[in-house]
């Protein structure tokens, strides 16, 4: 049987039964997140920073200021990008067996510096739409100067793994049954939008806000 992992580097060994290498699964986890963690080697030291991202097909795009040090270290260099969705806190009857329900993705590879303005626009659109679907059309494209002052890197999804834990707490048979065990589900929920005080047109929220409220209902 062929190895389902796209490479040995992303083959899940610990709890291999929780692994999923299907791009459909990987896309779905990525599309449910607004934050990733970018891991780079900077001056010989590991550095991991949280940041926004966008997915376009099988490519992840990350952006920042032209002077962004982590993105500079990422350009044409090995990186590791992770995305995590927390679905629940798993309380067991022993500290040892406490856990979380989650869906996570690890992507490894060489990040590519995006220098072409047309591809930069594709990236900036993907990043904007990842965070607030529909917002790109409402706000319009960035100016040429804004595009120039933005650093963008691309990370291919060809070397990626997903790992998913779901289900109840798991206790050993001799765990004290009088202790409460169970799962506390967690999910992000949107609050009431807070319009800027200088909004015009009566402050009516645009469709992108409705889509956000829908997403985080
Ligand atoms: C929210 C959350 C909380 C966690 N808490 C703990 C904890 O407290 N203690 C603990 O030991 N583990 C925890 N894990 C699991 C952790 O991410 C590792 O999978 C686990 O520690 C095994 O590490 P390892 O180096 O032995 O992995 P290995 O199985 O040796 O990893 C090999 C390869 O598998 C892939 N891989 C590994 N883990 C993941 C992952 N989570 N998602 C996608 N691909 C992956 C990567 O490509 C990696 O290079 C948690 C995961 C999440 C998402």
Q: Layout of helices and strands, plus pairs?
A:
Elements: E1 19-20, H1 23-31, E2 36-42, E3 45-51, E4 54-56, E5 59-65, H2 69-74, E6 78-91, E7 99-110, E8 112-114, H3 117-131, H4 135-139, H5 144-148, E9 150-156, E10 160-165, E11 182-185, H6 207-215
Antiparallel strand pairs: 1-10, 2-3, 2-6, 4-5, 5-9, 6-7, 6-11, 7-10, 8-9
The structure holds flavin-adenine dinucleotide.
The helix-strand sequence is: EHEEEEHEEEHHHEEEH
* Helical coverage, percent range: 10-25%
Q: Characterize the overall form.
A: globular
Task: Give the low-confidence spans.
Answer: none
Q: Report mean pLDDT, rounded to a whole number.
A: 96
Main beta sheet: 7 strands, antiparallel
What is the count of DSSP helices, taking H or I runs of 4+ residues? 6
Instruction: Count the beta strands.
Output: 11
Strand content: 25-35%
Query: Which class best fits the helix and strand makeup?
Result: alpha+beta
End-to-end separation in angstroms reads 42 Å
* Hetero compounds: flavin-adenine dinucleotide
- From the alpha carbons, calculate the radius of gyration and give it in angstroms: 20 Å
């Amino acid at each position: 049987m062929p190895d389902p992992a796209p490479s040995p580097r992303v083959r899940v060994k610990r709890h291999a039964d929780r692994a999923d290498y299907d791009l459909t699964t990987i896309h779905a986890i990525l599309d449910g997140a607004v934050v990733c963690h970018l891991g780079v080697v900077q001056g010989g030291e590991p550095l991991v920073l949280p940041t926004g991202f966008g997915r376009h097909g099988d490519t992840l795009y990350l952006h920042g200021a032209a002077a962004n040090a982590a993105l500079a270290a990422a350009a044409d260099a090995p990186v590791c990008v992770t995305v995590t969705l927390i679905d629940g806190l798993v309380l067991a009857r022993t500290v040892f067996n406490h856990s979380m329900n989650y869906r996570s993705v690890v992507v490894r590879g060489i990040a590519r510096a995006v220098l072409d303005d047309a591809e930069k626009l594709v990236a900036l659109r993907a990043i904007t739409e990842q965070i607030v679907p529909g917002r790109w059309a409402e706000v319009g494209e960035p100016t040429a100067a804004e595009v120039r002052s933005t650093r963008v890197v691309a990370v291919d999804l060809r070397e990626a793994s997903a790992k998913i834990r779901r289900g109840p707490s798991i206790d050993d048979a001799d765990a004290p049954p009088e202790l409460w065990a169970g799962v506390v589900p967690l999910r992000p929920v949107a609050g009431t939008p807070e319009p800027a005080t200088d909004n015009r047109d009566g402050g009516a929220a645009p469709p992108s806000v409705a889509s956000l409220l829908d997403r985080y209902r």
